[in-house]
Each structure stands twice: as structure tokens, then as C-alpha cells.
Design brief:
about 325 residues, alpha+beta, Alpha-Beta Plaits, 6-stranded antiparallel beta sheet, 13 strands, globular
């Protein structure tokens, strides 16, 4: 894709099954034919894989700094869409953004529903009805860390595109939860994440790939200290879906590459994955936003992955 200068927007990779992974991504519709040609060339080189594509989709996103401190934003969005009988095809998140892929015919209804559901027409937006706000001290720490990162970026900025990647962050304090064989229907994600949010658990990285055969898989990360409580909550919800399967990984490493230039430089992903590949590190989860690419790797590979990405993007440790 990068060789053909194809801009890629939403990218997700869920946890593999049987040694086989699925990667989904969106491109401008006008670039679809060239994208399919590039994808086929990649599959021919790999000697394995198959391609599926579709055009009748739209991306709907909610954006807000409050997502860093409130446990229920994702659950609220999924609940709003479920009430509007709108099914979610894909999910990807960053620290201040949640994006979902929906049927294009439902896009306007989805935007209006989410806008009204979060009370965005009001002068003061109410907190989500689902979930809780984190402790003030924790929220203040998170906000100060983000503010410092933004100050560092601005201090180094000469032009918007000089800084393609400004930061590579390693987080080794999270766990991964995966639910397979969930019904691919409105309300499933809402029910799942509402239970987690009401347990006062912050969900960070969410990945839902394109479903098939009326089933879908959802993976997400939570603070490691909250894993046991999260599993109890999820198991209670899964009683409604006997075919669903729960798995988890207590120790993981999450790496995030952040930069303003991700929006316009098509080669950031290639450089990131080449660096990890050359270091012998496998990616088990992936999601993106306009200025952030996050991956999950094995816990014992975290430091090595971090070092390889810092070197690849010529950043200080």
C-alpha cells in the first residue's frame, strides 16, 4: 500500500486463531481497485491468504478528552447505536476517540443518534449514563502526562509535517481479553462493555474485526490490576451467549506510535511493522486513529519492541 501511496485510515487486527490472523482496513473508495491489486500482490508474495472487500460502509467517530477519565463512553456509544438498531461492523479506539464502521445507509441515523445520545446539542454536555469518572488524582495525572507530551511536540515543531512520529510509548501494565463467537447483531457490544463500565473498569484498546457467518470477535485491554474483576463481569454477560468463548492474556505489552504526520505519510505503518519484524516480534493486536497506531505484543518482547521502534523513527529513549 505504501509503495502505491494509498492512504489507509482505520486498521484493525484481532487476536489470531490457529496461527491465522485477519487484518481489516479502510481506504478512500476511489483507491479500492489499486488497493485490491496491491493486496493481491502481497498475498502472492506471502503465499497464503484471501481478500474480501466492500464499499457500502461509513465510519462514525466520537471524540473527546473525557474518554481518558470516564469508564462508560464506549459502552454509551454502543448502547446508543443498539437502541437505533444499527449494527457495528468494526471498532477501533485511541485515548480520545472511538470509531465504528456501519452500513453506509445507516450513517446519517448513526451520527444523529450518537450526537443526541451524548447531548452534544446542549451547552453543557452531560456525563454518560453508563460508567463512572476515575478518581480525580488519577485523572489529573493522566491529563498532565498528555499535556506534557503536547508541549514536547509543539516545542519541536517547525512545520506540521516535520514531525511524522513524535513519540513511541510502551505500556506494560495492561491485560488482554478476547471474546470469540459473539452474535454479530446490535446490542452485543453495548451489553458487554456496559457491564465492564459499571464495574468501574477503564477499557483502553478495543478491536472488533469484520464478522462473518453471523458471528464476530471482540478483544480489548484493561489495567492488569482489574483483570480478575473484568473476567467475572464478562463471564456473567456471556451466560446469554452459550457459544461465545472467553480467553485472556494477563501480561502483554502495548506500544503506541504517535505523530501528526501519520495523517499524510503513507509509510509510517510500513516502517513500524518492518522494524518489529526485523526484531523478530509478532503483533497480536492492532488498531489506529489519525495520529496513533497501537499494537500489542508479548510481554517479554515489550522492551525490545520499544527500542526497535525508537531506533526506526530516530527518537530519543
Amino acid at each position: 500500500m505504501a509503495e502505491r501511496k494509498i492512504p489507509i485510515d482505520l486498521v484493525v487486527q484481532d487476536v489470531s486463531s490457529g496461527g491465522v490472523a485477519e487484518i481489516s482496513f479502510t481506504v478512500p473508495q476511489d483507491d479500492l481497485a489499486e488497493t485490491l491489486t496491491a493486496a493481491q500482490a502481497a498475498i502472492d508474495e506471502l503465499g497464503a491468504g484471501e481478500i474480501q472487500s466492500g464499499t457500502n460502509v461509513s465510519k462514525v467517530s466520537t471524540v473527546g478528552a473525557g474518554m481518558r477519565t470516564h469508564t462508560g463512553v464506549a459502552a454509551e456509544m454502543f448502547s446508543i447505536l443498539a437502541d437505533a438498531e444499527i449494527n457495528i461492523g468494526m471498532v477501533t479506539t485511541s485515548d480520545i476517540k472511538i470509531s465504528v464502521l456501519v452500513d453506509r445507509n445507516s450513517a446519517d441515523d448513526a451520527v444523529l443518534a450518537v450526537h443526541r445520545g451524548f447531548g452534544l446539542e446542549q451547552d453543557q454536555h452531560p456525563n454518560p449514563k453508563i460508567g463512572f469518572v476515575k478518581k480525580v488524582s488519577e485523572a489529573a495525572d493522566d491529563q498532565e502526562k498528555q499535556a506534557q507530551l503536547e508541549r514536547d511536540v509543539v516545542a519541536r515543531l517547525t512545520t506540521m509535517e516535520d514531525i511524522v512520529v513524535s513519540d513511541v510509548h510502551l505500556d506494560q501494565a495492561q491485560s488482554r481479553v478476547t471474546i470469540s463467537n459473539l452474535p454479530n447483531s446490535p446490542g452485543v457490544a453495548s451489553q458487554l462493555f456496559s457491564a465492564v463500565a459499571e464495574g468501574a473498569i477503564m477499557v483502553d484498546m478495543i478491536v472488533q474485526n469484520v464478522g462473518g457467518k453471523n458471528q464476530t470477535n471482540i478483544s480489548f485491554t484493561v489495567p492488569r490490576e482489574d483483570l480478575d474483576q473484568c473476567l467475572l463481569l464478562v463471564r456473567a454477560v456471556l451466560e446469554d451467549w452459550p457459544a461465545a468463548e472467553l480467553s485472556f492474556e494477563k501480561e502483554i505489552a502495548k506500544l503506541s506510535v504517535r505523530g501528526i504526520g501519520l495523517r499524510s505519510h503513507t509509510g509510517v505503518g510500513r516502517k513500524m511493522f518492518q522494524a518489529l519484524s526485523q526484531a523478530g516480534i509478532n503483533v497480536t493486536m492492532l488498531n489506529t486513529s489519525e495520529i496513533l497506531m497501537s499494537v500489542v505484543v508479548a510481554s517479554d518482547a515489550g522492551e525490545k519492541a520499544h527500542k526497535s521502534l525508537l531506533e526506526a523513527f530516530e527518537l530519543d529513549s
